[in-house]
Amino acid sequence: MNVSDADVFWIETGSMQGEDRYILEIAEHLADFFEEKSGKETTIAIRHQGAVWDSRDFKHHSSDHYTPQWRIFFPTAFSAFSQTYYPNKIARFEKDTADNTWYSGRCYNLDIRNPSHSDVDNWRTHAESNGVLGSTGQGAQGREYGYY
Q1: Rg (Cα) of the chain, in Å, rounded?
Q2: What is the reported pTM?
Q3: Which of 30, 52, 127, 144 could form a disulfide with 133 if both were Cys (CB 3.0 to 4.6 A apart)?
């Protein structure tokens, strides 16, 4: 299965990027999950905490220090947000099939869970049996991901 064919993609967030720790970096091949990936910079719509943010940045990022990445700028304008809200959690995106007439492109439902949450075990099992379960790197530096 290719990540572009999946309806669900989840990944360990790690320490996140940005001063407020709301920028997720994902490997180039995993960014194919998002239909909007083209060129170097675009936006995606994210539904989280009962609201839709219709233009969150989705940008290509390269450096001499690591392989090319894509950056997803998570929503921050809600009461539960803090610098510890996203880091070291599991971020799960699901392609929204609802009518999206008021914004352009697809919307992605975003769920955030602690790694020990029972939902994460279910996502892992589902990816292992119906999709792909993998890691972004080797050893402690790698972040687990899955899609189905």
Answers
A1: 15
A2: 0.90
A3: 127
